[in-house]
Amino acid sequence: AEFVGAVRGGSSSSSGRGGGGGRRKSKDERGSGAGNNKNAAREERQKRQRRPKSSNIANVARETKMSNREVKKSRRVRAVFMGSMDDDDDNNEREEENEDGGSFGGTRFELKEGTSEVLKTSSVSDDKTTNGEIIDVPRIERRDNNNDKEAVLLTFLNENRMLSEDDDESSRITASNLTKCNDAIRRCTSFEEVLPLVKEMRQFGITPVESTYVAVMIACRNAGTPERAIEVYDACRTSGIEVSKRTMLLTMECAVKAKKLQPAMRVKEDIEEQGWTLSPKVFDQLLKLTIDVDMPGEDRKGRSPKARLVRACVLFEEMTSKSNVEPSPVAFNALLVGAARAKEPQLVAQTFDEMTSQGVSPSRETCEIALKALAEGGELAKSLNVFAVMRQRGLAPRKSTYTALILSCAKAKEPKCDEAFEIFYRLREEGSVEPNRAMFAALIDCAIRAGKESYAFDAFDAMKEANIPPTMATYNRLIHACGQKGTANGLRDAVRLYEYVLAQNAADLRPDAYTYGSLIAACAKVRDATKALSLLDEMLEKSDEVYPTTVVFNSCITACGQAGRWEDARKVFEKLKVEIENRGGLGSSDLYIGRETYGAMLDAALGPGGAEAAVSAVALELGKDKKGGSSSGMKTSFIDSDRVELAIELFQSEEARRVCQYDDIDEALWENDGDYDASKYTRTETIVATLAMLKAVRYCESSSLKGNRTFADLPNEICINCGNAARRSLAVESVARAAGVKCDTEELGSALYVTLPKSSLKSFMKVRN
What we know:
Elements: H1 2-8, H2 27-50, H3 57-63, H4 68-82, E1 134-136, H5 156-160, E2 172-174, H6 175-186, H7 191-203, H8 210-222, H9 226-238, H10 245-257, H11 261-273, H12 280-292, H13 305-322, H14 329-341, H15 345-357, H16 364-376, H17 380-392, H18 399-410, H19 417-430, H20 437-449, H21 453-465, H22 472-483, H23 488-504, H24 513-525, H25 529-541, H26 550-562, H27 566-582, H28 595-606, H29 610-617, H30 642-651, H31 654-660, H32 665-670, E3 675-677, H33 683-698, E4 717-721, H34 726-738, E5 744-748, E6 751-757, H35 758-768
Parallel strand pairs: 3-4
Antiparallel strand pairs: 1-2, 4-6, 5-6
Helix pairs in contact: 4-9, 6-8, 8-9, 8-10, 9-10, 10-11, 10-12, 12-13, 12-14, 13-14, 14-15, 14-16, 15-16, 16-17, 16-18, 17-18, 18-19, 18-20, 20-21, 20-22, 21-22, 22-23, 22-24, 23-24, 24-25, 24-26, 25-26, 26-27, 26-28, 27-28, 28-29, 28-30, 30-33, 33-34
């Protein structure tokens, strides 16, 4: 209940599971509540029976909560069963109301007009009916006048057909004939085979009753088309037949089998409206279906694992509180699976704790589901609690159990490297489980994330002792561990491992994009652009064996930028474009130019220190040339440098505006009243945008390319929306103050706005010119 309230943004019910002020009802309270519910449902059912029936099928559709599409499907089926509708003219449709329907457990028949006698037959079992009695059955008018028409498919109708004394074309059919017809329908292998049988039944005056509909539904289920059974059920409901609980449960079974969530929930509501209760098994099926299937008609947000989990939680709450059904292990398992898919480890832990506190014994499958989900969330303490429950239950741990425990150490917010190796050593001491490759991979990952590269090589040595041959993925992890040191020795060790792999010349040990990406990233940490460029060229030469990725190009651009070689970074950017064209253009391969690529290029253009160094450099060296003297031309200032020109060119390029959603600077200054939205920019992008504004203002009067965009046309102030991040407002302030431009920062709501007055910009231009 707390989870659902948090997701929906509302308050949770105090009576829900997990609520602080709620309590579980006693048996006496549950009993009295169930009695009240039954009485209320009985009264509502009596009111509904007293209510006059409408011939408008739309009213029936609203009662049964059917969609327009479902109404049309049920109308077609009903037309075949009742013979009362013309499929070609829906406007002239007429509903044949059957006041006395039948139940699947005890079939009843309606007499034809003018008859006051009703004769009932009771079923001995599901497919056996007491026979021997001759009864009158309502007859649908035949459209042909052929009194000698013979049954082709249901030949037994010819043998038992008897004309009455007055020879009025009525039929006297024994109750066993209806049972035989239903049996014939059940043996059909497709819905198309059913329709001729039903039509022939109708021609001989046999009105389909509930047992007939059930027979068709069973045929649909056995034929592998359970979704057609839902249409038959809707046709039965709209025909005015009072449907029994058993028929509804059969419909729900077919809906679950067809993975149709909406019809299944509609049938559930039909059952509850009659005051009937659902068994734990039915709730188990609905919970599993809710977790696996999206609700049709939902928007994109409603088609996510979290949306399915919310619906499952609501259904679970209804099961425990409203229906007073004790959840089974299957229900808890379904909730655990949903929470795991939605990546909600906290809810996984709460559900598992509630399960054990209620005395429900978790199975091995339940424990494994909980362990895996908690491991993905890095919840080590809660994973150990589940492990303790497994021990208490006498469930021997498996390889996957220990792997999940080690993985929970690796994915914790603060990786627990020592705890991971302690679990591994305990495993070896017990000797009940042999470590596998996945376990060692988790150990190496844990050591890397904890920044303990030596531990990664300890796990590698233990792996070799266990006679488990390392794969390329193992070497990639070790190369990455070496590169993370950020030292020249680390890069040297990474290159040695790479060369060792090449020397093996094994078919299953081929460097891939991850290998080159880790090596180039190691070069970036030590600012070795030369080695990074040579590795990139080597990878491109092996493009038939190694498929280059955008991440590798981004790492190489970063390496060049860290080394201060922004021209080489630009060349790598151009190589990426060429490689994309060689592979068929954007969309034809996995290569692309995204916001990360432009971010790496902007950092490289701003200098070795990236955005941080650029803010310092925007001392702009105003009025100083390379020798430290004054220069009115300002050609040597940072804002006039080639690297800033490259950054602004990239930032304002048409492709960058399309990919990264950058706003046009000139449009903001002269056409948008000086308002500029930088609320979604990174710190680097904010700095480049501010530099672009200053440069546009500085040269607006002297540039003939601006046309009538002069300084006089500027608004009284330039207002930059920095969103709710202080780092953006600080970036704008740093650049403006370094340029000698006054600025004011104001907080409006949750957003920060930095304002550059026009008067300050005018003085800035006077000084510059």
